[in-house]
Specification:
mainly alpha
Length: 170
């Protein structure tokens, strides 16, 4: 090996291993409000935003009547085939619900009204957990439950299009 050029890998030498940086390290930022109060506000931010968005949507649909033509687009499935989808009548249902007319809301789309109450229950649970410092609730459906929900929506869609299920049509 005498006389041969040898290359030394710099990463394999002990001198080349980077060590801890010297000098002051940046520390965590100090919050302007107490930690407990900031964490509660942070926990309540997400459910509050969801509630604000849902409230704004209901306020808009409550103010702009979907029973008057020209305000909202027509359901594409209804327009192309004449078949009511599971969501048909949902805006009229939301309009009636926003005005406190629960009977008219059920008459327009009963499945949507059930959805409003499920959403309200979920939001109430989320707010309670956020106030208490618990984790946000998660909706985890087992495959059988997912199939059952799908079957209910499918049966609702089929029955409302049949003559004996005309009470479910908007």
């Amino acid at each position: 090996m005498s006389g041969e050029n040898q290359q030394v890998d710099a990463s394999s030498t002990p001198d080349a291993v980077p060590g801890p940086q010297s000098g002051p390290q940046p520390g965590p930022a100090v919050p302007a409000v107490p930690a407990r109060r900031a964490s509660r506000a942070r926990r309540l931010a997400a459910p509050a935003l969801y509630l604000a968005a849902a409230g704004a949507a209901f306020a808009y649909v409550g103010a702009v009547d979907p029973n008057e033509p020209g305000h909202y687009p027509v359901c594409p499935l209804l327009r192309l085939t004449g078949v009511l989808c599971p969501g048909c009548g949902g805006l009229r249902s939301a309009h009636a619900f926003a005005h406190g007319d629960l009977a008219a809301a059920f008459g327009s789309n009963a499945l949507a009204v059930v959805g409003y109450f499920v959403f309200a229950g979920f939001m109430a649970l989320w707010l309670v957990r956020a106030v208490r410092g618990g984790p946000a609730p998660r909706i985890v459906l087992r495959p059988a439950s997912s199939w059952a929900v799908g079957a209910v929506v499918l049966v609702f869609a089929v029955v409302r299009n049949l003559s004996f299920g005309s009470a479910l049509a908007p």
